[in-house]
Design goal:
Blueprint: E1 6-14, H1 17-32, E2 39-44, E3 48-51, E4 68-71, E5 78-81, E6 85-91, H2 101-117, E7 132-134, E8 137-147, E9 150-158, E10 178-179, H3 192-206, E11 211-214, H4 217-237
Parallel strand pairs: 1-2, 1-11, 3-4, 8-10
Antiparallel strand pairs: 2-6, 3-5, 6-9, 7-8, 8-9
Helix pairs in contact: 1-4, 2-3
Length: about 240
């Protein structure tokens, strides 16, 4: 009898972008070693612009004072993260038929579409593009990375963020792309936490997890300390 698939979920609050990168890296290493199970990190970032591996810096129209810009190892072009935006970073080991990047992207889109539908928001995907739209406006961006079929990076869903920051970029490198949020659509009663709860349920259902458990933030941050300790030990040996 096969073991029930379990998903760990961590609500991390607001996390600096570089800290989240370090955490994902440590978690990917741990997941590859089967030291941890599949997990979904849900959080917010302070204001930051990020570019994918091959993104064109020309899509950064101007850089608002004090906002960091990072080029990272995900797919996609440039995007914005900030307060009021729900960030999801799945750390999953894909096996068998799930080792299909296109399928994984479509499952992330469906997760968001189904979650928004629970609030009465009709969202869709667009053929040939990655992300989620409401009408002609984009409400969620997706950019992923994979390391030996373990996923990292993920999605950003606009809930109650300040959309003016998107004016500084060409979002996702799409000309004339207009961004929206649940608040801008009139759903001002929705908070990041409330949306996160429905995203958890939608994600678990879409990816076929039979059970969900909460992961303490401290145990995850300890993975970074363990990584540092291993690196130091290797340095001493060499």
């Amino acid at each position: 009898m096969s073991e029930a698939r379990k998903l760990g979920i961590a609500r991390l609050g607001t996390v600096e972008y570089t800290g989240a990168l370090r955490l994902q890296d440590a978690m990917v290493r741990a997941r590859l070693a089967d030291a941890i199970g599949d997990a979904l990190l849900l959080l917010e970032h302070p204001h930051v612009f990020t570019l994918g591996r091959g993104a064109d810096l020309g899509f950064l129209r101007h850089r608002p004072h004090g906002i960091e810009v990072h080029r990272v190892s995900r797919g996609g072009q440039i995007t914005y993260h900030g307060p009021g935006q729900l960030i999801g970073y799945p750390i999953l080991k894909l096996d068998g038929a799930a080792r299909d990047v296109g399928r994984y992207l479509r499952d992330l889109e469906a997760t968001i579409i189904n979650a928004l539908g629970a609030f009465g928001i009709v969202a869709t995907r667009r053929i040939g593009m990655t992300g989620v739209w409401v009408g002609d406006q984009k409400i969620a961006s997706i950019g992923v990375g994979l390391r030996r079929w373990v996923t990292f990076h993920g999605f950003a869903l606009n809930v109650e963020c300040d959309l003016k920051y998107f004016d500084a970029i060409v979002p996702c490198g799409i000309a004339d792309c207009e961004m929206t949020s649940t608040a801008a659509l009139g759903y001002t009663e929705l908070s990041v936490d409330r949306v996160a709860t429905v995203i958890e349920q939608s994600f678990a259902a879409r990816f076929g997890y039979e059970s969900v458990e909460s992961i303490g933030a401290a145990s995850l941050w300890n993975l970074i300390d363990a990584d540092v300790a291993r690196c130091e030990a290797r340095s001493e040996i060499t």
